[in-house]
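Nucleoplasmin-3
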Amino acid sequence: VLFLGCELSARTKSYTFQVDEDDDSDHILALSVVCLTDGAKDECNVVEVVGRNHENQEIAVPVANLKLSCQPLLSLDNFKLQPPVTFRLAAGSGPVHLTGWHQIMHRDDTSFEEDDDLSEEEEEEEELAPIMPAKK
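Structure:
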């Protein structure tokens, strides 16, 4: 897992995240927080995610509308995207900071499959013990 961060402003209106086309791994980009940073004006700052739909047509979806006086920060709860994806400041002058994480899953990595094959005994061990009252 790698952490991602970029800043959009009047000078840098967009940022594109892409992976090498020859890479046969699966990539997930999860957007966590979008926030206004030092120097932002009290204006609407609209951040869009630009990607491609199933017909390979470009689509832009607004994901945040930030204003210093009423909503300077937005948590996107790890909004998952598949690269390539572009973040664009559609309105406002920012600066707007975006943070998230990039997970790479190699196709030969079977660790996620092994978790599904737990024996019944192991599953029982994983159950949480009941909550007991505190001792005085």
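The first helix runs from residue 111 to 116.
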